[in-house]
Amino acid sequence: KAEINRNAYNGFRLAEDAEEATEEVNENSLVLYPNPASDNVTLNYYSVSSQQVVIRIVDITGKIEIVQQKSVEPGDNYITMDVNNFAKGIYFVEISGNESVLNEKLMIAK
Description:
By secondary structure, the protein is mainly β. It is 4% helix and 54% strand. The protein has one helix at residues 18-21; strands at residues 8-9, 14-15, 29-33, 40-47, 51-59, 64-72, 75-82, 89-96, 101-108. The protein is globular and about 35 Å long. The protein starts with 7 loop residues before the first strand and ends with a strand.
């Protein structure tokens, strides 16, 4: 008899059961796609509250390429950034807000 897998994936870790997987996320998160990018990159920023955030993209040497301030709402926020003029290489995306500072590595491929 086949055993049923009762685990459910909640996006970041394996939950013990479906009830746990549907519990509200209680921390901010950041996902970049596509990564590597060439023209545009979308930031999927999950926020636990309404807030102003500052988005910075810096290159490997620390040179700031983009600084933008955005208003975000609770839940998933999708922010598309134009990276068409960026040189091929490694960059870092930082989002800082009231509750946290999140960093993700971004690869630019041409």
